[in-house]
Recover the amino acids of this structure.
């Protein structure tokens, strides 16, 4: 009958359109089966490459003087509120610095803590001129501390060959700079050994 031939033509055309990669003989072979599984060929989507946001290079940062503190800002009194914030931060970090707290637990937390705002003193040094320098840490880099003293002088003190002490609520901690040659961000993820050789 005409209707069946028309139906075959429609189905053949549909299969041809649905499966463009198949030959006519293969389509006719599929029509003889009871069930026809249609294949799907999705269009390939072109992935757009994301542009990475590039930061400043070390040279550009130096040229722009991003990390330099202006002379008019180099005053001890300006940074005293920063020290108060640091003290509260350490108390929260160490759960109040209670008298019964274990010293090694506090020490391990201080090793990973942010020291910006801490008042430190150089207690030992291979260079005698550094001994006795006391002030608030304004900037910590991999190899140096930038410290503002009570005399409103900005001191650049190397970590290497220096021992620093910091005191908070009667707890005194010592920092051996030679074992501390890390950026603040790297320190927070580093595992420090509790025992080891201590030397300047």
């Amino acid at each position: 009958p005409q209707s069946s031939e028309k139906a075959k033509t429609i189905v053949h055309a549909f299969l041809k359109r649905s499966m463009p990669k198949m030959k006519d003989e293969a389509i006719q072979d599929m029509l003889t089966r009871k069930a026809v599984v249609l294949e799907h060929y999705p269009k390939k989507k072109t992935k757009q490459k994301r542009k990475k946001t590039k930061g400043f290079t070390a040279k550009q940062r130096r040229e722009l003087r991003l990390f330099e503190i202006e002379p008019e800002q180099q005053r001890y009194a300006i940074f005293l509120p920063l020290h108060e914030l640091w003290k509260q931060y350490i108390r929260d970090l160490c759960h109040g610095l209670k008298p019964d707290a274990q010293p090694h637990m506090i020490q391990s937390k201080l090793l990973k803590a942010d020291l910006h705002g801490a008042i430190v003193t150089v207690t030992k040094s291979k260079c005698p001129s550094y001994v006795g320098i006391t002030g608030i840490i304004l900037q910590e880099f991999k190899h140096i501390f930038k410290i503002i003293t009570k005399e409103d002088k900005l001191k650049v003190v190397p970590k290497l060959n220096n021992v620093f002490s910091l005191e908070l609520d009667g707890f005194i901690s010592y920092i051996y700079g030679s074992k501390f040659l890390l950026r603040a961000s790297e320190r927070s993820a580093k595992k420090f050994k509790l025992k080891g050789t201590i030397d300047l």
Summary: The chain has a mean pLDDT of 82. The CA atoms of residues 114 and 185 lie 9 Å apart. The radius of gyration is 35 Å.
